[in-house]
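[Structure tokenization] protein backbone as discrete codes
[Encoding] learned vocabulary of local backbone shapes
[Protein] chain in single-letter code, fold in tokens
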Amino acid sequence: MTELETIRHSCAHVLANAILRIWPEAQFAAGPPVDNGFYYDVDLGHRISPEDFEKIEKEMAAIIAEAQPFQREVITRDEALAMGERGELAGLSPRPQSSKFKLDIITRIPTGEEITLYRNGAFTDLCAGPHVADTSGIGAFKLTHVASAFYQGDEKNPQLQRIYGTAFASAEELEKHFALLEEARKRDHRKVGKELGLFHIDDSVGQGLILWTPKGAIMRQEMQNFISRELAKQGYSQVFTPHIGRLDLFRTSGHFPYYAESQFPPLIERDTMEKLADEGCSCADLGNRVSAGEIDGYLLKPMNCPMHVKIFASQPRSYRDLPVRLAEFGTVYRWEQSGELNGMTRVRGFTQDDAHLFVTEEQMAGELKGCLDLVKTVLGTFRMTDYRVRISLRDPSSDKYVGDPANWDRAEQACRDAAATLGVPFTEEEGEAAFYGPKIDFVVKDVLGREWQLGTVQVDFNLPVRFGLSYTGADGKAHVPVMIHRAPFGSLERFTGVLIEHFAGDFPVWLAPEQARILPVSEKVADYARSVVAEMTARGIRATADLSPEKLGAKIRLAQVEKVPYMIVIGPKEEAAGQLSIRSRQRGDEGAVAKDEFIQRIESEIRDRTLTV
């Protein structure tokens, strides 16, 4: 646990202590540190609201001022149960009711595992720690919001109140944190995306399903064009595959039933359903028979890879044909819980800039380097150069992972060797690999310092074996290819959501849905405005003209709100001289320039993907 996590964990105890001082009947479940703060789950007859935060924070401040030492104590299971029965765990003193949630938590602690508690002042809590030396080490804190949560995350259990807060070592750090949160709210892609008309989510279509509006579609197409040109340089072949496939295809790959809970329900053929209905088959029986493989059907594809495998297998392959690089902007579907959906960054249907490479083991190192170079090119183009690299490995003790351990060892070492070529530090995380192979993930920091997992490259010895793939080697014998999965963007939806927040909607000119807006000062120069738009459009520039009767100041303000990179003011003087008066989004008024000079300038910025205007 980091120093900051320790501060926040300690503050969670102070929160529970303060609540007990106000409402002694409160019962507590868990209170861990989390990203950007902490929470504590409480069962309490009083409904806590933000209006209560002031008095809770006042008690917390008093506890912190008392500099109460955190004292660790190891106890036996019987001692822990006895204390829980007396209400002493997450309690201030023995009380009539037991610590019911803490008693349940004790039963979940594996036999033989050490049980510890921490005391600060009159408050005692069952806890593994660690904590700061005393409560004064917390520094600065603030409660942020309250939500509902089921005990242990199970909707069959009691619903508790989850009180969230955050804490830092100093007031300055706390103030900086909330300033960043305010900036994040301004940049929220759901807010900015709506204001700029980039995408829409409609309940009548379905939550988590993105409708790309014309402006958003321009951005998406620009990103696809960009990556397609890079793929052509590396010798990829474009393919297209359907949105659904037979269940048996995904049974072979392992996606069904391994990840059945994160997929949409299978689609059963109509004649099969009619036959089962005649037999009186219940929904539960149907589900069991589908899971057991007794009934086939179709599945909204959760992954593109099984279909790319089938394209590779559709004709005989020789070692001379390899590597085979298949790329697709393939839409896949995952069943995310409604509470986890978040605009474009957590969805139920998304399009991956997906590709699968079928290579010999000797080609693997070079092809992996090519994939990593592609991810670096993508991130560099968008100036997302502050990133860390994570290698996700299998957990040898888990039965989640399929295939020969020796192949896993070779795949994991290949990932390490490839990551080493990046020249940046990387970490290894056991248990985070896909079920079929290890992966290299790029975890990118945006301008606010928030981390996003974007590009990924995976090494897979297993799916080729599961599907019986082979190629004829130089020795005339059949050999199994190695498969590399890679997606530099990750998904177009998620990447776009991150871009909206990264740029706060101020997209570089090459990516902006509208690149230039002509603002005539009066109707007298409307024809000149139209001719400038026509010339720019003919040269591939996305330009429009605001021919409304509004005054020039209003037209400029509207263009600024809509974050158009270039505003071009024209009047009789500009028309007579064949000039354009330029206002850029970042530099403001740049004065008048020759029309051809400006058009060449913006063409250059689009071609070179310049990021500032």
Observations:
- DSSP finds 20 helices and 27 strands in the chain.
- The CA atoms of residues 208 and 340 lie 10 Å apart.
- The chain has a mean pLDDT of 91.
- The radius of gyration is 30 Å.
